[in-house]
Amino acid sequence: MVEPLPHDSASAPVRTLPFGTWPSRVTADAVAAASPRLDGARFVGEEIWWAETVPEEQGRTTVRRAPRAAVPGSQVDTLLPAPWNVRSRVHEYGGGAWSATADGGLVFVEKSDQRVWLLTPGSAPTPLTPAVSAQALGGLRVSRGRLLAVREVVGEAVSHDIVEIPLDGSAADDIDRVISLTAGSDFVAQPALSPDGSALAWLAWDHPHMPWDRAEVRVRRLDDGEPAGRRVAGGTSAALQPEWTADGALLYADDASGFWNLHRLDPAEDRPEMIAPDERDTGGPLWVLGSRWFAPLADGVAAVRTRGSDELVHISSGGVVTGIPVPAVGNLLVEDAEGTDVLVSGSPEDAPAGLWRIDLREPSRPGVHLLTGGRWQDDGLSAWVPRPRRFTVDGRHGVVHAVEFPPTHPEVKGPEDALPPYVVLVHGGPTAHAPGVVNPKTLFLTSRGIGVVEVNYGGSSGFGREYRERLRGRWGVVDVDDVVDVARFLAADGTADPARIAIAGGSAGGWTVLGALVASDAFGAGISRYGVADARLLASETHDFESRYLDGLIGPLPASEAVYLERSPLTHAHRIQTPVLLLQGEEDAVVPPSQSEAIRDALRAGGVPHAYVLYPGEGHGFRRSETVVDMVRTELAFLGAAFGFTPADVSPLDLEPTS
User: Fold this and answer.
1) Tens of pLDDT along 483-526?
2) Is residue 582 within 8 Å of 595, Cβ to Cβ?
3) What is the predicted pLDDT for the residue at 81?
4) Any idea what DSSP says for residue 530?
5) Bond prior to 208 in cis (omega within 30° of 0)
6) What is the pTM assigned to this prediction?
7) Of 235, 275, 302, 392, which residue is most buried, by most CB within 10 angstroms?
8) Angle (deg, nearest 10), helices 478-492 and 508-519
9) How much of the chain is helix, strand and coil, in % rounded to 5?
10) 484: part of which helix (H) or strand (E)?
């Protein structure tokens, strides 16, 4: 993970160096190596399987396995060899691209052809679905011995349904043997079969809503010939994640109370019961199909609760809530449960993401076992890790939540008469959440004397529905004002050098970056990764999942076209006077390169210092090791060029124009 410094010694004196120039053990290569993404986990017999990206293999996703009783350092096997790559294109964000059968078969979506394949022990993968260019599959779930999936078909229109895929391979060359189980909704997700296999529950929603705005839990009997089923929850609220219990009751989350709370609908009852209601969310925005926030247990439920940070709790059948001390406090998901065993993934406050097995035989004394990740590879790195500080700012639209990561180095400090530069990070979405945990990219900056602040601007998830809806109709206003208010707060309270505060973000976060550079002088530099520059262009070019997202964030077209024009950073790009770095994936179908290139052209025309980097083979979000390495080096070099310092270990970056 890290490399020793030449002067590295337990007794080395503390030196004084300018902020941004500190030597660091955290290299760009180490950031890439420490950045695999976990993508689901399952109990499979006496083993635990999980998927994770392999940055050094062009970002492919593989499936690994370890014994159920594994401890850190145990043998981990790669189940799916290169070049197989597990990734779904449903909704472009994918998710749920693999599952497992009871007898140890791996079913997965291969990125290159979007077919579902089956890998059985000792054999090569064989296809379960035919090659259909206009079709993508995801959200795989083996339930009661049957393989369910979300299917997306792109033609003159885009359609989605839940399908059953035969596990015997009989549909490999016959599309008609892939059986559609649902109809009548624009979008579907999270299929679940009842214990006796007679009923199917799933999540459904329609344009122009997103699943966190309005969504329904629907149920149908599989022998009644009614694929639309009936609504049992949601509609005016955002229901989420139907799950059956062993006794045939239906569990789901719903935010009609203002927070996603668990509900139980018994087979013989017409009205659901809310389970242990709380002003924290058990649920989140369904950007990827595999996300799950709770799971039924032999006794009760294991559930995530979020109010800024995450907590895992056990809710007994009698409603008693017991906190479970799992180290992860951000991005926490309940991946699987079996009996009293639970698999959870997430990020600790001060370490990389990890996967844990939790033994809940005695919830008051749980067994917590780390399986992979969840700690720095070098124990000596702990002195370099900043202590997060959560704080709020009284912004123009209400309270704004943020987390600070100060510059931290065991052997170097900054000059007494200087304040450090800071980077204000803006998460994407915009309906998403900054978890407030130290990740390798943050550590790369803080260890060099550059502070970082994450902002959960109005519209972020993790604080209930009212906070989430603060952005409704006001994207480009509330988010921009909130990040500006946080930057001004950092300058006013003496945390950051007012002249050296940068802003950085990707996708919707890039929109906020560009909007803040247009609207204020609070920032001395901006970094936009695949950012939205023209809302009208986004509405016309983006994929089906988000094609009506802007109806709620800005307004419906064409009636709101003037608002789109006014809010778009590209309209006012002539107001940008500070240096800008633009990073873009060449294959991005969510925010195409045309968005970044339009801003680049405007900056070039205005003579504003800038750099534009296009990464071949990358989509929406960067996965390849070489891309991550170049990105973090380029961003550091850009900050040095913008703020007048020379980083210790990256080459200078030439900005255009050069004079």
Assistant:
1) 999 999 999 999 999 999 999 999 999 999 999 999 999 999 99
2) no
3) 93
4) S
5) yes
6) 0.91
7) 302
8) 60
9) 20, 35, 45
10) helix 478-492
